[in-house]
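4.2 Preliminary Data

To establish feasibility before requesting continued support, the project team ran the inverse folding procedure on a target of 118 residues. The structure was first converted into the token representation described in Section 3, and no sequence information of any kind was made available to the design step. The complete token record follows.
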């Protein structure tokens, strides 16, 4: 379908993942294989699924992987909110605006290629 490297949503997903890696580097070492790992996996999953969908070549596949990316964004946000409750971060530390913007852009791309909202 597309060269994923040209997709703005993929670029923004990578930027978000890099931000999340930086943010989680301050988490306690004891969380490295727990919540830190889960947060990072969810963040990486967003651009990875966009790339996979683009690489599959079809509209149906791309739409499917965009929906998976949206799920990963929700998972990421959930994990980050748990980290706030555990007092690893404050809500002001979280990349809420980046998550919200990326979600809207993924939805717009999904709508554009399918004509329907997931």
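Position-by-position output of the design step:
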């Amino acid at each position: 379908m597309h060269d994923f490297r040209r997709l703005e949503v993929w670029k923004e997903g990578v930027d978000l993942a890099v931000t999340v890696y930086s943010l989680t580097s301050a988490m306690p070492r004891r969380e490295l294989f727990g919540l830190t790992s889960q947060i990072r996996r969810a963040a990486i999953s967003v651009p990875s699924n966009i790339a996979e969908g683009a690489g599959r070549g079809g509209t149906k596949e791309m739409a499917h992987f965009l929906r998976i990316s949206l799920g990963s964004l929700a998972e990421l946000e959930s994990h980050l909110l748990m980290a706030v409750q555990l007092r690893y971060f404050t809500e002001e530390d979280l990349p809420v605006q980046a998550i919200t913007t990326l979600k809207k852009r993924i939805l717009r791309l999904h709508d554009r290629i399918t004509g329907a909202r997931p």
